[in-house]
């Protein structure tokens, strides 16, 4: 379907070309840009005019073009929201891309807006330059605990088409997306797992269930066990999990806790409790960071570290 529309694809991707797993309790929030005040260049020229790089808003799904390209974009959007339901043969759990990247990557939890403009790029964990297709398959194998999509499949083409659409007008090769606030706690305090358990019972289990099995891929995804992300996912690192929790959880007030009100200590305690629970393994984990530089909170040993011993 994409091949027949090659010309339309090129027109859309002249400016933008070529995923990790939590979601919030209750409904995903309305899409909104994350604003920062540190960008040196306030605007950039796009196909439809100047865009504000401090606050980027992707085009609405209501404006998807008609025809084969539009149908592929819509299919990609559906795959983002209903991943494990639509293509269960490629997923090993009950999550969706939107479990982590809320509203199909268009809200502020973990935005994918503009992502195709920053790929290809070098990824230290892989030790090589990855395309956007490689990055998608990394998430399928780690966060979705599944297997990679064939690169020439309708599904892969649809996901790339959708991600390119929500990157419209973002300059290709941009080094940073200044409207993106990363989910990362730079300095994680010594966690208290017991306190994390108490916080979980107070404010999290209503949506994620007392046993962490979840209530749904968007309403409250599984946080541990067979239907959650595996040990190779970025969210298996406490700095990433704590950062995500602190920025986004809970989406609605739960147990007297409001979104964004958790302290560093509370977020770290919750992350430590969740990550202390069993989850699937990742068979290729030892091959990560082949050039070294393994972050301290990676919860497994890699071959490059063994060589230095």
TrEMBL record:
Keyword Membrane: no
Region of interest called Disordered, as start-end residue ranges on this chain: 281-309
The Cytochrome c domain, residue ranges: 191-278
Record keyword Metal-binding present: yes
GO molecular function: electron transfer activity; heme binding; metal ion binding
Family matches, as Pfam families: Cytochrom_C (PF00034), SoxA-TsdA_cyt-c (PF21342)
Record InterPro entries: Cyt_c-like_dom, Cyt_c-like_dom_sf, Cytochrome_c-type_DH
Entry keywords, A to Z: Heme, Iron, Metal-binding, Signal
Signal peptide: 1-31
Protein name per UniProt: C cytochrome
